[in-house]
Write a structure and sequence with these properties.
With about 350 residues, the chain is mostly beta strands. The protein has six helices and 28 strands. The longest helix has 15 residues.
Length: about 350
């Protein structure tokens, strides 16, 4: 269990007998939220005029869950007291994740949970569980700072337990992701960011609900005036890579894009629409497989964006060359996708009956 995490310069297992609980990677990989200091919501214009150069990434609190193991009562209390002094030092502490090649500068906030999982007295196999909430006051690690001078390695014993899904539960056929949740997610030739296919460049595959978010209409600013407010859209995805190195390469490419200080062009070819979006928050990041070097790495995530130019040709513009008409029917240049609904009918009583997989 060594070689995964360090607090300051010490391996957490060797120094303290600590092991990460499931969910620690999720807490660290969830990107911080972004706020924009300068924004004007003009009453006689669609959307919001937002100064992206004023973007500030907000401090965040991270909950880190650990086990602590010892073979003697004395060792447990000694390791725990040393850890307490390290965490509560006024200067904060550095938490390094070797597989991520990243270091996080953190300050202790609280310990919301502590549980004794075995008896401590007269026991040679002691285990406790606890959570530490720490604040990251300067979440700029994703802007290229705090990189560890190491290469990614693949220890045989991953600290992550257990698998949430099996790799055999999904497959990718012709660029489309099929997963045993509620049906088919994504013909990912549908979606591009700044002209690049999301699966190829960022390992992203659209999840159920993405269409729903994009098609939801904005709120009108004032009755009688055809001007619309900016809206927040939360877009759900899977992030998939063939190995750990590929996973982090895709992830950091995505983070650099989101933190670039520019609007991104999100093309939804199936809708024949283009949206200009700016990053706001990542409300969800959760890995679905163990992070190791032997099989595909899968995570689910959602990202919230501001759509500052709703219902305008500047923002949701029309894409060229996506549709074609043949014999009076609309033909897609890509195959259609759906949100798990296989078929529907309206019965004699006027009721809508939906058939799902």
């Amino acid at each position: 269990m060594t070689g995964f995490f360090k607090i300051n310069t010490f391996d957490i297992f060797t120094k303290y007998g600590m092991m990460a609980q499931n969910g620690l990677y999720d807490a660290l990989l969830k990107l911080p939220s972004c706020e924009y200091g300068l924004a004007n919501d003009w009453p006689l214009e669609n959307g919001t005029e937002r100064d992206l150069s004023s973007a500030v990434f907000q401090p965040r609190q991270i909950s880190l869950d650990f086990y602590m193991y010892a073979t003697r009562e004395y060792d447990l209390y000694n390791n725990y007291n040393v850890l307490k002094n390290t965490l509560t030092a006024g200067s904060g502490f550095t938490f390094s994740v070797m597989q991520m090649s990243r270091a996080f500068k953190l300050k202790y906030v609280s310990m919301p949970s502590f549980e004794k999982l075995t008896k401590i007295k007269s026991n040679n196999k002691i285990l406790i569980s606890f959570s530490v909430v720490a604040s990251e006051e300067h979440p700029d690690v994703f802007l290229g700072l705090n990189l560890l001078p190491i290469s990614i390695s693949y220890p045989a014993d991953s600290p992550d337990v257990p698998l949430t899904i099996d790799v055999n539960d999904f497959q990718i056929i012709n660029g489309d992701l099929y997963i045993n949740e509620t049906g088919v997610f994504g013909d990912n030739n549908y979606y591009k960011i700044n002209g690049n296919e999301i699966a190829v460049n960022y390992g992203l595959y659209a999840r159920k609900g993405l269409y729903r978010e994009l098609l939801r209409l904005p709120e009108i600013k004032s009755p009688g005036l055809n001007y619309y407010r900016s809206r927040a859209v939360t877009l759900p995805f899977f992030l998939i890579a063939d190995n750990l190195a590929g996973f982090y390469a895709k992830y950091y490419s995505l983070a650099a894009l989101l933190f670039s200080g520019n609007y991104i062009r999100f093309d939804a070819a199936g809708m024949n629409r283009r949206y200009e979006l700016c990053y706001s928050d990542m409300p969800l990041f959760k890995k679905l497989t163990n992070i190791n070097g032997s099989s595909k790495v899968v995570a689910e995530l959602s990202m919230t964006f501001f759509d500052d130019r709703p219902l305008t040709t500047e923002g949701a513009g029309i894409l060229d060359g996506i549709f074609d008409f043949q014999n009076g029917q609309l033909i897609y240049s890509q195959s259609d996708q759906f949100d798990g609904v296989l078929d529907f009918e309206i019965n004699n009583n006027g009721e809508l009956i939906i058939h799902t997989q």
